[in-house]
Specification:
Elements: E1 9-13, H1 18-29, E2 33-38, H2 41-53, E3 57-62, H3 68-82, E4 87-90, H4 105-130, E5 137-142, H5 156-176, E6 181-188, H6 194-210, H7 220-231, E7 241-245, H8 249-252, H9 259-268
Parallel strand pairs: 1-2, 1-4, 2-3, 4-5, 5-6, 6-7
Helix pairs in contact: 1-2, 1-7, 3-4, 4-5, 6-9
């Protein structure tokens, strides 16, 4: 039975594409009011139109969550539009692929800000609203197995930012537990998202997905289902926790599975051999 989120409001960063798009549509289908935060507003408008066409309720707001002021503005716009905030799903990330020597300071800062700093800024701004949520507030971040459970060469900057996000989840949960706010993260492995397709290509995504022990890449819907659980009353005993969702990749992956990814990353960095 699907959870019922009628009367509740959720903010989804990165709501215009990939995992954020899937999460936003899932919450709308479950009855929630959905605010889609999107850096490219056109993508957010497309998802909003899909939600409205399906009978749901949604708004979208242009926000670059690597900017503190934009995080505050997104929270304020949501409160004004729907009268409060019950749930935040932080799914956006300006991902800097590359190891040492291949990521400049601007890209490093953008990646760290959009992943880790944004979590701080969003929870800090939304805390007064989440504390008023009838069934307790929920903050859910989308992390990654890379950086905490796994180390991938040529993704050093990305892994560092995601590891910082994990540390924030554990610490911030204690900061807000007295406000009846839970703070958790979902750390996916390979997800068949727009970004994965951009890096791997369709053929590479299929080949890489075939190496996942369960036999496929994950989907945005897989992540959305976990978000619905963490946002529900059934999860109110869970906080400061990271849920690993990787199809068994960190416990039973075949040797050499990262070769496909490494070949693609090296091509993007202009390396050969």
């Amino acid at each position: 039975m699907m959870e019922d989120f009628h009367g509740k409001t959720v903010v989804v960063t990165g709501g215009g594409r990939g995992v954020g798009r899937g999460v936003g549509k899932a919450f709308a289908a479950a009855g929630a009011n959905v605010m889609l935060g999107a850096r490219t507003i056109g993508y957010g408008e497309e998802v909003k139109a899909e939600i409205l066409a399906a009978g749901g309720t949604a708004e979208c707001f242009a926000a670059d969550i690597a900017q503190h002021d934009d995080c505050r503005a997104l929270i304020e716009a949501t409160s004004q539009a729907f009268g409060g905030i019950d749930i935040i799903v932080h799914a956006a990330a300006d991902i800097p692929h590359g190891g040492l020597g291949h990521v400049d300071d601007d890209r490093l800062e953008a990646g760290f800000a959009s992943i880790a700093k944004a979590a701080w800024w969003l929870l800090d701004a939304a805390r007064p609203h989440l504390a008023k949520a009838l069934d307790g507030g929920r903050f859910i971040a989308i992390g990654s197995i890379n950086g905490t459970f796994n180390v991938v060469p040529n993704m050093t900057a990305y892994g560092m930012a995601k590891a910082a996000l994990d540390a924030f989840i554990r610490a911030a949960a204690g900061d807000v537990v007295s406000d009846r706010i839970t703070v958790n993260a979902i750390n996916p492995g390979l997800i068949a998202s727009d970004r994965a397709r951009a890096v791997l290509g369709e053929e590479g995504l299929a080949s890489y997905g075939a190496t996942v022990p369960v036999g496929r890449a994950g989907t945005p819907d897989d992540i959305a289902h976990a978000c619905l659980f963490l946002a529900s009353a059934k999860s109110d005993y869970i906080t400061g926790t990271t849920i690993k969702m990787d199809g068994g990749s960190t416990v039973a992956a075949p040797s050499g599975r990262n070769d496909i990814l490494q070949d693609r990353l090296k091509l993007q960095q202009g390396e050969t051999g």
